[in-house]
Structure formats: C-alpha cells, structure tokens
Amino acid sequence: MHAVPSASLMMEALEPLVGGSIVTVEASGRLLFCSDHAQKHFETFFAAEKPFIGGLPLTVKKWVRRQNAAFETVELTRRRPQPLTVWCGEKNLEIRLASTRDRTVRIMFLRAQDPTSELAKLSCLALGARATEVLYWLGKGKTNEEIGIILEMAAETVKTHLKKIFWRLQVENRATAALMVSEFLIRA
C-alpha cells in the first residue's frame, strides 16, 4: 500500500510546473495553504501591510473577496476573473485566481516578474538588445502600438523588428512567438 502525499506537498510539487507560487483559500477567504515562495512574495510586495492577519495581506484578502463574488454569480460567463498586479520598483507580482469545481476552494497562482532578469534570459537568443525588448513585450501580450509606447519607438519600427524576430526564430506569427517566449521564461 502506498502512502498518499499531503495536499501541501502536492501543491509545492506543482509550483515548478505552473511557473509560480500557489496559495489556497476556502471560499470564505480562510487560508488553507501558502507555499514558502508565495509567503516570500507577499512579504516583498506587501511589506507595508505586515503583519498579515490570517496569513494574507489585506489587499489580497479584499481582492479575493471581490473575485469570490464573481465566482458565485453568472458574471464569469461575461468576464474572466481579473488578475491582481502589484508593482515593487521594476518587478511586479501577478496573482490569478481559480476555483475548484465544487466552488469550495480557491487556488491563487502567484508569478513574480522582473523584466531585467527576464530580458537577460532572452539575451541568449542573440537577437540584439532592442529586438529582445520587443520580443519580451510581445510575450507579455502587448500590441505593436503598446510596445512602441513602452520602448519609445514607432509602431512601424516595432513591426520591422517583429518581422526579423519571426524570421530568426523561425515562427510564422506573433502568437507562436509569444508562446515561445512564455515557455522559455518559465523554463529558464
């Protein structure tokens, strides 16, 4: 007979697969599980809210409460749950929420992003500094116009960079390139 691993061991084992940290809460908002990585993220991005009452920063508790209301209504058929994004300098923490089928447990996926380190990871593609920046923001789901604003270049220049990037990476479109970037950043 095999021993069944605890839920917390299984959650921690899932973290490398999802490319982020995991927190679970009851639908009422009571904390069930918070990985060590997730706790570190909370301490970094919500330092001003310490000590955390009940294990979660107040901002996160309020956000979960608002999202829970959407899970309990038909609102999810009109819009997906909205992520919570918190910035700390150049870094950001994105928190997404999912619900179990029986709607009794919510699972939070936390992913910290640091553009500086992520750009460094992409540099091994040898695309050049500006093209790497364009590819990075493409991977974040930005349009050519948004990338142009962020990088202070014309949308046509972004388009030119993308043509060269697609040829270099041997991909046919922006969706494939964005998927490639996302997978690369998770694995790197």
Number of domains: 2
- The total count of strands amounts to 5
What Rg do the Cα atoms give? Answer: 19 Å
Percentage beta strand: 15-25%
Order of strands, main sheet, comes to 2-1-5-4-3
What separation lies between the terminal Cα atoms?
A: 37 Å
Give the helices and strands as they follow along the chain: HEEHHEEEHHHHH
CATH class of the largest domain, named Alpha Beta
Query: Segments where pLDDT lies below 50 for 5+ residues?
Result: none
Average predicted local confidence, pLDDT: 84
- The quaternary organization reads as single chain
Q: What count of helical segments does DSSP give?
A: 8
Give the structure's gist in a few sentences:
The chain is α+β, with helices and mostly antiparallel strands and 188 residues long. It contains eight helices and five strands, in the order αββααβββααααα.
Structure description:
With 188 residues, the chain is of the alpha+beta class. The protein has two domains: 7-113, 2-Layer Sandwich (Beta-Lactamase); 116-187, Arc Repressor Mutant, subunit A (Orthogonal Bundle). The chain is built from eight helices and five strands. The protein has helices at residues 7-18, 36-45, 58-71, 115-122, 129-139, 144-151, 155-169, 174-187, and strands at 21-26, 31-34, 84-88, 91-99, 105-113. The protein has a five-stranded antiparallel β-sheet with strand order 2-1-5-4-3, with helices on both faces. The model has no long low-confidence stretch (mean pLDDT 84).
